[in-house]
Structure formats: C-alpha cells, structure tokens
Amino acid sequence: MSSYEKTCLIRGDGGRAIRSILDRIGNKWTLLVVATLEGGSMRFTELQQRIPGVSQRMLTRTLRLLERDGLVTRTVHAEVPPRVEYELTATGRTLIAPAVTLAEWAVEHNPGIERSHTSFDARAAQPPPDVG
Amino acid sequence: MSSYEKTCLIRGDGGRAIRSILDRIGNKWTLLVVATLEGGSMRFTELQQRIPGVSQRMLTRTLRLLERDGLVTRTVHAEVPPRVEYELTATGRTLIAPAVTLAEWAVEHNPGIERSHTSFDARAAQPPPDVG
DNA sequence: CAGTATCCCGTCCGATACTG
DNA sequence: CAGTATCGGACGGGATACTG
Asked: Which UniProt keywords apply (chains A, B) (predicted)?
C-alpha cells in the first residue's frame, strides 16, 4: 500500500471510522481502563484502586461506554454484597496493540513536543521580531 | 517486551505521555489536517478545500496547535496577497504511521462497534429481563 | 460494593461577522 | 488570502452527596 493510500484510511469518508474510536479513547480514562483490564477480569473497586485519580462517576461512565462499544463485558453476580466483574472482550483486547503503538510514539516524542511548547509560548509572548 | 510491559507504556506515570497526544488528535480536525499535509506543503485555502466541512476558525485553531506542538511549520511569504504555507515537520510525519495503525483498527472494527451500539441501546430501552 | 443524582466549570466546535 | 472577534450550544470531567 502506498503512503497516500494509507492516509486514505484516515481521510476516507471524512475520517468517520477513526473518529469513532478517537471519540472513545480521546476520553481521559478509557485507555487507562483498557490497559488495566489487560490484567484480566476485575471488580469495580479494584479498577478504581489501580487507576489513581479516577472518580466513581467517571469510572462508571467510562465502563458503560466501553460496554456499549462491545469492548468490555459487565457481569453482575447475584450475591450480597454485590459483585460486578469487568473484562475485556476479544475486540477490546485487539485495541491494545494500536494503543501501545501510539503510546510508544508519545513516549518518544513528548519531550520534543514539550520543548516546542516552551519555545512557541516564549515567541508568542514577545512582540514579533521586526527588521530594523 | 511482555504484554504487561507494553501496557505500561499506556499506564506509566498515569498515562501522561499518551494523554498529551490524545489531547491533540482527539480534536476533530487534527488527523485530517495531518493526513492532508502528508501530500506536501500546502496553503491555508487549499487545506480548507481539501478538508470538507472545516471552518476557517477551526482550521486556524488546529494549525496553531499543531505548530505549537512542533508537528507543522507555518511559513509566511511577504507578498501581496499574503501567502502562508503549512508543512509537516519531520516529527509530524512520524505521527502518520501510528495514526494509520489506529485507522486500520477503526476500519476493521467499526461495523462490530456499531452493531454493539444498536443491541446495547435496544437492551437499555427495554425493562431489564426478569425471572418469572 | 457499586453505583446515581446534582452542580458547575472549562473546552470543543459551529455559525456569523469583520479585517490587514 | 488568511486570518480575528464574538456568541452560543453541547459535552467532558471534577466535587460532592445520596442509595439498593
């Protein structure tokens, strides 16, 4: 496949396909939940403990969206106290590879991006360089 | 690298590295702009024509953020009428590969995800199935 | 234990109008 | 041509309080 044909996977149909997954993993907690569930079936509280900073509200929301996407299963056990297990589906597991690819890119290029922010912001704060 | 070690690229430091790039490509027009600039240096108007639906405002914003990240260069030519050329930097070009990887995943799994939405929403609209 | 409900703020995004 | 200014709606996300 040529380079142009590859970018068509992004541009094709106005990028509708890639948008739908970006609308999901663009959310703050999604990838953290998926990566954490890579360790196997897990309960709500255990997930919350393993993901520092996530609130009950946001963990619930994130899990519901992933369940709706068919990337995570939610299993309620009829017990007292209630026990709910979350687990990646087969499809959910396939998401990890491309996510890791992106994470590798991020880890490699973030330092440069942050340096770029610094210099860009410094330039923006200055009056534009003028001749004379 | 083990599967666990790979997901650490996502979970490491609370996912700060991957968040910064997701905060960029999570935005609606970013990847479309990057993929379009893969064709080479381009003017503002040409970009706008090649990206259906983007407004002047959003194209400007997107390009500024990409410039700040050091993924795109902005070159103003001192002419009348003004001519401004945008081009991917070396770093910007390296983003295309992981983006394509994600797009491939999206194209492959979107049909299943949309079917999942349909059945999930149908279930949610129904009263929960009860024994008896 | 595993959620819901409510409030509130910031940002994304679109639409529209104006300019060096 | 390549922007900027302003307005308004929608949504993500944090904090807090309540519940089967």
From this structure: DNA-binding, Transcription, Transcription regulation
